[in-house]
Amino acid sequence: MSIALETVLAKAGLRVTPGEFLGLVEDAARRLSPPNPNPAEYFSADQRETLTEVGLDLRPRRPDEVDSRARAVAAQAVLRDSALTVSDAATTIGVDTSRIRHRLAAGRLVGWKDRGGWRLPAWQFTGSGVLPGLETVLAALPIDQPPLVVAAFMTTPQEDLLISGEPGTPRQWLLAGGDPDRVAALAAVLGTPA
């Protein structure tokens, strides 16, 4: 299993040992939710009755069901492993570490506090700088969106961002010189009901 996992991690470009990656997965799973939550416990009796009446299944997951947390846990582990430290980000864009912290505080970069300091998702950087139009997009994001949601948005093709006739990701759109206001308009509605 270790060789297969090493191969997958190498193909994905993740600089982590299989043991470290499995530790990240375990940590992400622990943070995400209990292993087998009983959804009914989260609601009052009246709420359970109403939700059941409209067709929601509030039973705990069966042992033979796929754990719905698996995709989110894997995505969280990859996001954490591929994120840059403040020092890495400073080196990438050629500034002092204090400038990175200042940009984080001002909302001009996105990141989260983790063991050992700030972590900055790699999607917001290019080989030699910051993603063009990033500040415009970040200014439009609702403040309650977690890094995983923002990363998924920035790396998922959007029908409204056509590049050579094909849907592109917001990151690809910005790298291709696309209007950041188009991405900002899409980002502004993250987390709102469709």
Automatic annotation (TrEMBL):
<protein>
    <recommendedName>
        <fullName>DNA-binding protein</fullName>
    </recommendedName>
</protein>
